[in-house]
Design brief:
The mean pLDDT is 97. The protein has seven helices and seven strands; from the N terminus they run αβαβααβαβββαβα. It starts with 5 loop residues before the first helix and ends with a helix. The protein has helices spanning 6-11, 27-39, 57-63, 66-69, 78-87, 128-131, 151-166; strands at residues 15-22, 42-48, 71-75, 90-95, 102-103, 114-120, 136-139. It has 168 residues and is α/β, with parallel strands linked by helices. It is globular, with a radius of gyration of 15 Å. α2 packs parallel to α3 (57-63) and α2 (27-39) packs parallel to α7. The protein has a single domain (6-166), classed as Alpha/beta knot. A seven-stranded parallel sheet has the order 3-2-1-6-4-7-5, with helices on both faces.
């Protein structure tokens, strides 16, 4: 299947995208985000607050080893992760339903820019004080009776859209 090794992954060009998990409680969701991030060579993941960090059996169960390939860093406070990202030149967008949010299909990443997307807690979403530090909000349009998606599904959709639009 021509898969690259973990060492080759570490050395490979990455999608200029960081995924920030803001108090994600399910270790299975964390593992799934690692796996999607590996699939599209995301730059790194920031694990914040109550979000679990590897090594954990539950993370490995869904990550299937991607937690060894994708770089990650833990932050006690999500705001500190955003401060570090912004000071390093990353544009930060929350993935949240909010007034003034940009629908995903209308979001066009600018060439040469680096982006970070913040995904929130399964029940509470992205913290308001975190949204307030972001450059904007991206929203996935939904047409059913529910008004949210599982955080790992959301991550997969967003990562794919960034990869597609940034033409990695």
């Amino acid at each position: 299947m021509h898969r690259i090794s973990t060492e080759e992954f570490k050395a490979a060009e990455k999608l200029p995208l960081v995924v920030v998990l803001d108090h994600v409680r399910s270790l299975y969701n964390v593992g799934s985000v690692f796996r999607s991030s590996d699939a599209f060579r995301v730059e790194s993941i920031c694990l914040c607050g109550i979000t679990a960090t590897p090594p954990q059996v539950e993370i490995h169960k869904t990550a299937l080893g991607a937690e060894d390939a994708v770089d990650w860093k833990y932050y006690t406070r999500t705001q500190d992760a955003l401060d570090d990202l912004k000071s390093a030149g990353w544009e930060v967008w929350a993935v949240e339903q909010a007034e003034g949010s940009v629908m995903l299909q209308d979001f066009v990443p600018e060439e040469g820019k680096k982006y970070a997307i913040v995904l929130g807690n399964e029940v509470k979403g992205v913290q308001q004080e975190v949204i307030d530090r972001c450059d904007g909000c991206i929203e996935i349009p939904q047409f059913g009776t529910k008004h949210s998606l599982n955080v790992s599904v959301t991550a997969g959709i967003l990562i794919w859209e960034f990869a597609r639009k940034m033409k990695l």
